[in-house]
Recover the amino acids of this structure.
């Protein structure tokens, strides 16, 4: 048993608190973690038990076990005990397969996976939708229903601290019902291999107190006030607005309306600095191979910096 | 010939000289590769599969170097994706499955006291196909063209030609080619186990290895064809833009996942059970007693095989399936642990009851059992759906599957290597190096893979070429990388041991003092396999049967001679192993290799869109197959019977359901029917997916008339063939020939009628999954009608050439088996495409 406590301690001592099934901030992940602990302890007990039986078997002198005794042991240890344990496990685990209860009033968030970013649409009951990208905000203590799909290839939506993963499949819409119970900033990732930059397809998850979430939702509906300087002119002149919306409308690429609020750039992979943003504009494939955005390598660095600065102004 | 004759040493020497001459391998730089003897082909096969294992291992080391530290840039994303795709594909398709087949090709005849397997040329064909396909697939990485969609190749990522390049075609066509050779080997092994056992070896006296081979080969027969069906749909989409997996045109990416995992999960047991089979051979040897619970282990193996086909959906728990299927597949996935536990405890109680002799093979067996048990327990964990939603597609699963495969495939193979090396080479490997290697591999595997459980739960998804430093996964990954190199060091020590083997002394015969037939092999092995084919009365004849080895060696059992200068072995009945006949085996020939080259050409040229060249290669393949059949099968012997000793005379020609050829045809057609059912599954899967299927715009489908005409023609050719078989057997040869001619006509007309439905209705397969799947079913079925016409023409030619007579009618009997399955295929296809739209 000492070994198992050591392993449990190891399990709990994960140093990563942002993207770990061992550091839950939601009901689903929390109950799964409890289940994990039970399974791990059970597995350890069984593994050590089999090892002990094996050592006894090898050491026993010839003829200690006769044919009938051997057959009894196979029957009990090989068939009956595993059947009982597994049946118990199944019965115990079945209720956990049921999703959390939901009502029509619950906040719906539609997320679409695309190579290699996330299109997010908040659909609060009785209000117009709010479009965003690469960031998911949820209120703590309220049930939230994610509606998940994909446009190009299969992705998988995984916020380890919140709940298990759910695939995003073109032509299908899957639902994932969650309830966060601890405010904070977390990270989600794509868990289904989706192409060249699968490893670089992440997003930020911000669990907010309900009141601040409501306030954020209300503020976010208003288009941010922007200056009409050099950045704005360059953004338009370079054709950025062909793919990126700045007013929360549908767009080909990620929505950039409240870009300044984001805590990462490039779908969860870069720190939100002006320099990173400018570098991404000039050569997106350096930090994200296979991204759909074309390179603007001909754009002078100063221009890219100007656009980046201007984008970051908005939404603060 | 009586027992008395064998007392004469001069006679024995003369017999041995004849046997030696008959079984002598061809010599010369080129000619030696035409050999078909299982001893030669099996060794090439093992070495090739081992080579692919080392290659895939090196790929893994490069991956581990890239992941050793966060944000590393040793290899780029594109290369990394090729690395992990090839690592998985090569280990599964070019190492684990072929290695099982290779080992079985070497061991099975020895275990069954047969001179060779029933179709040695088929084994050789399988080997050359494997070599060509394997080099084609794995060589692609040197041209930066390797498949990069994961070994599971999920569409649409892999079917969209704008998102994936040539690599996807290389995977699909190259591995389809290898799947064909795997099925060929499965046919060979099943017929070998069922028909080539020594007299007296009833099913319940069969060595457990043979039982496992039977179970696993049957699994291959039912598991690979759905993947082949999937491959067909996949390439239709890639090459012809038929939208089976494109949701915007009525397809569904999940169809591929179902077909892939109906193959993919049994595959896990296909690579695991043969290793358990090695345990079942070596545990009794080192426990110095019979295995306890023989019926238990046979039932457990059969039960595992059965259950393994009912749990593929646990690879799809996160695809948003209905809860009821989650519960069912969760239960089935947990249940498979029960037969596995039975098998493990059978070994443990055998050791308990016996006197354990410690040895290097047993050390490997022990270590692999320890690792496997951990992998099995994490397997039960991921069978629990809610836990799987967290663990799925993370490093936890990477840890789980490597514990299972290292404990359940790799290390048992090393146990088998140390155990059987003296059997193959006559020399023992070094115990010291073996133990060193064992500890390196055992410790390395745990250091490498144990931390992955944690990195997975801490949020590290699979198939990532890098991970950010902020996640704090650097330490765990570094440990894994160190562990992987320790494993590699262990494998290097084994290689060193193997390389030093030629300079070691010969080991005594049967160095482990085992009790099973294969240990009759002599250190100075002769190519004839076994001196005389024994009468079996026990599961451990060397231990239990008096004077057994001497009697075999002195040719006192059956078939001790090769008077007519032909390679021969005894065929027995399926259940109780009564001798039925003596069959002549194919000797060295260029045909297997040339056929493999030609068939490989079909797949490889199609990959590069050289369709005309591929067609030429296909015609060449057909010509070679016909030449092979014409010269090498259903040969009318120079005399009806021959004595095999002890006053027993056996016929030299048999046809119908006691002949190996009939069984081979039947088994092949089971695989064919399974692939076909995969396509039919596709049709009904689309129906369940759509509110309106067929879609309103094409509600009439191919119409009713032409499918019904095609059905009538298909059934007519089937009836004509059966009538021809019966009249032919009654000696009315002319009438039989006319009936065969009618059958050819009906089959050919069936080709046109089958295609006329979708063609005349103007169904465009690029518009929607419905016309695409209808066309696919029609093409599959009419292709089978075309093959039927060719087969019947072959039968007619054999009859005209007087190579087929009423008393020697294997050709038409075997073709009739094909026609039974054709009748099934036309019935299902044309009722589905013709009448189902009327109902739906």
């Amino acid at each position: 048993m000492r070994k198992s406590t050591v392993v449990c301690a190891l399990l709990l001592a994960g140093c990563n608190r942002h993207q770990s099934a061992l550091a839950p901030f939601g009901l689903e992940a929390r109950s799964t973690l409890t289940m994990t602990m039970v399974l791990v302890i059970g597995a350890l007990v069984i593994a050590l038990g089999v090892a002990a039986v094996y050592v006894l078997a090898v050491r026993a002198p010839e003829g200690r076990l006769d044919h009938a005794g051997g057959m009894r042991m196979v029957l009990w240890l090989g068939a009956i005990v595993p059947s009982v344990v597994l049946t118990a496990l199944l019965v115990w685990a079945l209720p956990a397969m049921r999703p959390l209860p939901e009502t029509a009033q619950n906040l719906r968030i539609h997320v679409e996976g695309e190579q290699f970013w996330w299109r997010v649409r908040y659909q609060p009951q009785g209000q117009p939708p709010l479009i965003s990208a690469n960031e998911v905000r949820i209120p703590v203590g309220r049930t939230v229903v994610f509606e998940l799909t994909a446009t190009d290839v299969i992705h998988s939506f995984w916020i380890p601290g919140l709940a298990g993963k759910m695939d995003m499949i073109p032509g299908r819409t899957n639902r994932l019902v969650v309830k966060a119970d601890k405010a904070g900033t977390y990270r989600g990732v794509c868990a289904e291999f989706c192409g060249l930059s699968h490893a670089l397809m992440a997003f930020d998850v911000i669990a907010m107190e309900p009141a601040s979430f409501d306030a954020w939702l209300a503020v976010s509906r208003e288009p941010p006030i922007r200056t009409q300087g050099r950045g704005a002119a360059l953004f338009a002149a370079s054709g950025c607005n062909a793919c990126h919306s700045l007013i929360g409308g549908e767009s080909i690429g990620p929505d950039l309306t409240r870009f300044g609020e984001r805590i990462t750039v490039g779908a969860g992979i870069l720190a939100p600095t002006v320099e990173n943003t400018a570098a991404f504009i000039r050569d997106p494939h350096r930090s994200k191979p296979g991204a759909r955005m074309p390179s603007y390598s001909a754009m002078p660095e100063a221009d890219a910096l100007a656009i980046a600065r201007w984008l970051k102004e908005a939404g603060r | 010939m009586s027992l008395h004759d064998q007392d004469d040493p001069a006679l024995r020497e003369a017999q041995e000289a004849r046997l030696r001459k008959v079984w002598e391998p061809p010599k010369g730089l080129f000619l030696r590769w035409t050999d078909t003897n299982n001893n030669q082909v099996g060794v090439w096969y093992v070495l090739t599969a081992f080579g692919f294992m080392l290659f895939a291992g090196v790929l893994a080391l490069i991956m581990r170097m890239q992941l050793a530290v966060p944000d590393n840039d040793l290899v780029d994303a594109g290369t990394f994706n090729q690395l992990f795709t090839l690592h998985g594909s090569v280990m599964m398709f070019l190492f684990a499955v072929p290695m099982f087949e290779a080992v079985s090709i070497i061991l099975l005849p020895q275990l069954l006291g047969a001179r060779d397997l029933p179709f040695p040329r088929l084994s050789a064909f399988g080997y050359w196909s494997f070599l060509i396909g394997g080099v084609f697939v794995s060589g692609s990485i040197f041209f930066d063209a390797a498949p990069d969609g994961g070994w599971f190749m999920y569409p649409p990522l892999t079917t969209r030609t704008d998102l994936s390049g040539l690599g996807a075609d290389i995977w699909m066509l190259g591995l389809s080619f290898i799947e064909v050779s795997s099925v060929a080997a499965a046919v060979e092994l099943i017929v070998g186990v069922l028909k080539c056992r020594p007299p007296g070896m009833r099913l319940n006296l069969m060595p457990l290895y043979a039982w496992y081979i039977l179970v696993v080969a049957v699994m291959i027969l039912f598991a690979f064809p759905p993947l082949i069906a999937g491959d067909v749909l996949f390439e239709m989409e890639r090459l012809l833009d038929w939208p089976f997996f494109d949701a915007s045109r009525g397809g569904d990416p999940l169809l591929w996942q179902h077909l892939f995992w109906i193959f993919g999960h049994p595959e896990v047991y296909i690579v695991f059970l043969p290793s358990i089979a090695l345990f079942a051979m070596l545990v009794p040897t080192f426990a110095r007693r019979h295995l306890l619970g023989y019926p238990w282990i046979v039932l457990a193996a059969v039960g595992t095989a059965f259950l393994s086909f009912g749990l593929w959906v646990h690879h799809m728990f996160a695809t948003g399936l209905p809860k009821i299927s989650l519960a069912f597949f969760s239960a089935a996935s947990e249940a498979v642990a029960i037969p596995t536990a039975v098998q493990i405890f059978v070994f443990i109680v055998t050791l308990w009851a016996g006197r354990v002799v410690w040895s290097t093979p047993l050390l490997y067996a022990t270590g692999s059992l320890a690792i496997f048990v951990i992998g099995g327990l994490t397997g039960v964990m991921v069978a629990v759906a809610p836990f799987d939603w967290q663990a799925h597609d993370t490093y936890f699963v990477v840890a789980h599957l490597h514990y299972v495969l290292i404990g359940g495939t790799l290390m048992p193979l090393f146990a088998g290597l140390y155990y059987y090396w003296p059997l193959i080479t006559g020399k023992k490997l070094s115990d010291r190096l073996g133990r060193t290697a064992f500890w390196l591999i055992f410790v390395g595997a745990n250091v490498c893979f144990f931390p992955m459980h944690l990195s997975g739960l801490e949020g590290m998804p699979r198939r990532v070429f890098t991970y950010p430093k902020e996640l704090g996964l650097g330490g765990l990954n570094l440990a894994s990388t160190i562990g992987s190199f320790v494993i590699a060091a262990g494998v290097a020590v084994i290689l060193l041991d193997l390389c030093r083997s030629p300079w070691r002394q010969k080991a005594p015969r049967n160095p482990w003092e085992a009790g099973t037939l294969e240990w009759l092999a002599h250190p100075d092995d002769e190519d004839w396999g076994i001196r005389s084919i024994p009468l079996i009365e026990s599961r451990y004849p060397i231990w239990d049967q008096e004077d057994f080895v001497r009697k075999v060696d002195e040719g006192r059992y059956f078939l001790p001679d090769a008077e007519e200068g032909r390679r021969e072995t005894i065929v027995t009945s399926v259940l109780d192993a009564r001798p039925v006949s003596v069959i002549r085996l194919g000797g060295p020939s260029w045909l297997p290799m040339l056929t493999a080259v030609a068939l490989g050409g079909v797949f490889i040229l199609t990959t590069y869109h050289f369709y005309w060249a591929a067609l030429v290669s296909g015609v060449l393949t057909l010509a070679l197959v016909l030449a092979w059949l014409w010269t090498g099968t259903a040969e009318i012997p120079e005399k009806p019977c021959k004595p095999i000793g002890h006053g027993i005379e056996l016929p030299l020609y048999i046809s119908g359901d006691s002949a190996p050829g009939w069984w081979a045809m039947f088994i092949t057609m089971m695989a064919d029917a399974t692939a076909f059912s995969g396509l039919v599954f596709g049709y009904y899967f689309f129906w369940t997916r759509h509110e309106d299927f067929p879609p309103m715009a094409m509600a009439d489908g191919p119409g009713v008339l032409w499918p019904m005409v095609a059905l009538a023609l298909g059934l007519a050719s089937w009836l004509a063939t059966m009538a021809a078989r019966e009249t032919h057997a009654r000696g009315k040869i002319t009438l039989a020939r006319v009936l065969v001619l009618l059958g050819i006509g009906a089959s050919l007309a069936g080709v046109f009628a089958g295609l006329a439905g979708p063609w005349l209705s103007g169904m465009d397969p690029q518009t929607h999954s419905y016309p695409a799947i209808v066309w696919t079913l029609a093409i599959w079925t009419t292709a089978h009608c075309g093959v039927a016409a060719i087969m019947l023409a072959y039968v007619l030619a054999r009859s005209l050439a007087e190579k087929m007579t009423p008393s020697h009618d294997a050709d038409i009997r075997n073709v009739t088996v094909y026609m039974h399955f054709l009748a099934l295929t036309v019935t299902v296809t044309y009722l589905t495409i013709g009448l189902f739209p009327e109902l739906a």
Confidence is low (pLDDT under 50) at residues 1-14 of chain A. Chain A touches chain B through 88 residues (CB under 8 Å). The two ends of chain A are 53 Å apart (CA to CA). The beta strands of chain A are 107-114, 117-123, 130-133, 135-139, 143-150, 155-158, 166-168, 174-179, 184-190, 202-208.
